[in-house]
Amino acid sequence: MSALNMMTRIATVAASIAISLSLPTLATAECRGSQNLPSQQFFVSFSQNSFEISESEQVKLNQWISKINSRYPIQNWIDVIGSASKNEVNYDLLARKRATEVAKIAIGNGLINAPFQIQTEIYSASSIAEATSDAREVTVQVSPGCPDNCCDGM
């Protein structure tokens, strides 16, 4: 066997070894494990002592739902958190009604790709007679999922 043939064979074997050693590395580089993308949130505002959603808030919520469903067709969970202040009348019931009204609209407009959880949050009464805007809103949170539970590159 000539020296040239011997060098060619060695180079071929070395290349084969390098490729076979790099394949597991390439496979693991595709996905570094299960990762969650940050949750996406939307806030629906309410008037003092009210659980009625204004038309403008409904339009904004529907647009957000459409965007979320197209951008993240895989969803891990959906939380709807209704809040009220102890300054408001029947605050516990009010927080539940706010969350329920938002959940009905969200479900009716296609936010149905993951389990729903409805919660309430009651803010303590402040020295201000009117509840703050944070206490008069519902937060909708969606946890985006990824194909094969791998979010690398998304």
Protein described:
This is OmpA family protein. It comes from Burkholderia anthina. Keywords: Signal. Residues 1-29 form the signal peptide. The protein is an alpha+beta fold and 154 residues long. The radius of gyration is 27 Å and the shape is elongated. The chain has 2 domains: 1-30; 40-149, 60s Ribosomal Protein L30, Chain: A. The protein has a 4-stranded mixed beta sheet. Strand 2 (75-85), helix 3 and strand 3 (116-123) form a beta-alpha-beta unit. It has 3 helices and 4 strands; from the N terminus they run αβαβαββ. The two termini are 52 Å apart.
Which homologous superfamily in CATH is the superfamily of the largest domain? OmpA-like domain
The name of the CATH architecture of the largest domain is 2-Layer Sandwich
Roughly how much helix do the residues carry, as a percent range?
Answer: 40-55%
Instruction: Give the C-level CATH assignment of the largest domain.
Output: Alpha Beta
Strand percentage = 15-25%
> What count of structural domains?
2
The low-confidence runs, each spanning 5 or more residues with pLDDT under 50, are 11-29
Helix-strand sequence: HEHEHEE
Mean pLDDT: 82
Termini distance?
52 Å
Q: According to CATH, what is the topology of the largest domain?
A: 60s Ribosomal Protein L30, Chain: A
Number of strands: 4
- What spatial form do the alpha-carbon principal axes imply? elongated
Instruction: Please outline the major beta sheet.
Output: 4 strands, mixed
